[in-house]
């Protein structure tokens, strides 16, 4: 057993320390002449305890037992090779293997408990990382979903705006059509009224007024058949008409005959 004392004064035991070395052919004679066939004992094995003790004395127990244990092999190999390069060139350290050191039982149990707690802490830390990662993933998913909903809402809003704009334009076109129709109707009615007024104005000639006067007279006149008609009409015809016309008896008969014919044509008899 290789026992060394750590920085805290605790004895540490290494059950087995293996060192594999190789001597080149050209250096065999020189090394064997200087250090005998058992050259590896003074050059390597006797120095292993010293190098391990040198390493452990500068580190605390926790570093040797846990934190830096995986570095002991490499550190020991480098230290031995540096010394061999000076004292026995051609002798090479191929590999160094150091077993897990033994420490007092009470300390070992404490370290086991510490390792258990450390493992729990690592598990909890990793679990927390997983939870945080899941939360981050959920947050990103929520952001993506919110963006998607916002885009959908924006598209829907744009569609509503376009629909309202289309309805407004259709309403404007319909209003314009109704206005044009109403204007056309008003223009037509105005034109018809204007034409009717113009026609009525053209009708209001002296001859037309005279005719209407006679029609009014004939509308309210009573006609009789018999030889006394001329005398009756002359007696009942307004004196002013007779005076204005200055009719003779023959002309009066002709005028009366004409009035009778006009009355019949107008549907009087």
Name the descriptors:
269 residues, mainly alpha, two-stranded antiparallel ribbon
Uncertain ranges: 244-249, 263-269
Spatial strand order of the main sheet: 1-2
Compressed to H and E, one letter per element, the order equals EEEHHHHEHHHHH
Rg, Cα atoms, Å: 70 Å
Estimate the helix proportion, in percent.
over 70%
Distinct helical segment count = 9
Shape call: rod-shaped
The portion of residues forming beta strands comes to 5-15%
Number of strands: 4
Mean pLDDT: 76
Largest sheet: 2 strands, antiparallel
Helical/strand content category: mainly alpha
Distance between the termini: 163 Å
Task: Provide structural commentary.
With 269 residues, the chain is mainly α. Helix content is 73%, strand content 9%. The chain has nine helices and four strands, in the order βββααααβααααα. The chain has helices at residues 28-35, 40-57, 61-67, 69-87, 105-203, 206-219, 229-236, 239-245, 249-265, and strands at 2-5, 11-14, 17-23, 91-98. A two-stranded antiparallel ribbon has the order 1-2. The protein has a two-stranded antiparallel ribbon with strand order 3-4. A hairpin with a 5-residue loop joins β1 (2-5) and β2 (11-14). α2 packs across α4. The chain starts with a strand and ends with a helix.
């Amino acid at each position: 057993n290789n026992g060394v004392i750590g920085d805290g004064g605790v004895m540490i035991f290494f059950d087995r320390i293996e060192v594999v070395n190789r001597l080149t052919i050209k250096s065999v004679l020189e090394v064997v002449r200087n250090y005998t066939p058992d050259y590896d004992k003074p050059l390597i094995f006797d120095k292993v305890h010293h190098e391990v003790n040198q390493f452990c004395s500068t580190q605390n127990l926790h570093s040797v037992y846990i934190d830096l244990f995986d570095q002991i092999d490499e550190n020991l190999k480098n230290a031995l090779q540096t010394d061999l390069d000076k004292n026995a060139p051609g002798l090479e350290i191929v590999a160094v293997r150091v077993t897990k050191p033994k420490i007092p039982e009470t300390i070992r149990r404490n370290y086991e408990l510490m390792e258990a707690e450390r493992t729990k802490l690592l598990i909890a830390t990793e679990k927390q990382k997983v939870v945080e990662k899941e939360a981050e993933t959920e947050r990103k998913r929520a952001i993506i979903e919110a963006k998607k909903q916002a885009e959908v809402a924006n598209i829907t809003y744009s569609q509503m705006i376009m629909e309202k704009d289309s309805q407004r334009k259709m309403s404007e076109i319909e209003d314009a059509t109704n206005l044009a129709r109403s204007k056309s109707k008003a223009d037509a009615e105005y034109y018809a009224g204007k034409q009717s007024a113009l026609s009525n104005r053209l009708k209001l000639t002296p001859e037309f007024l005279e005719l209407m006067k006679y029609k009014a007279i004939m509308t309210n006149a009573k006609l009789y058949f018999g030889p006394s008609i001329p005398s009756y009409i002359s007696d009942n015809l307004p004196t002013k008409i007779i005076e204005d016309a200055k009719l003779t008896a023959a002309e009066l008969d002709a005028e009366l005959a004409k009035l009778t014919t006009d009355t019949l044509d107008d549907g009087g008899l």
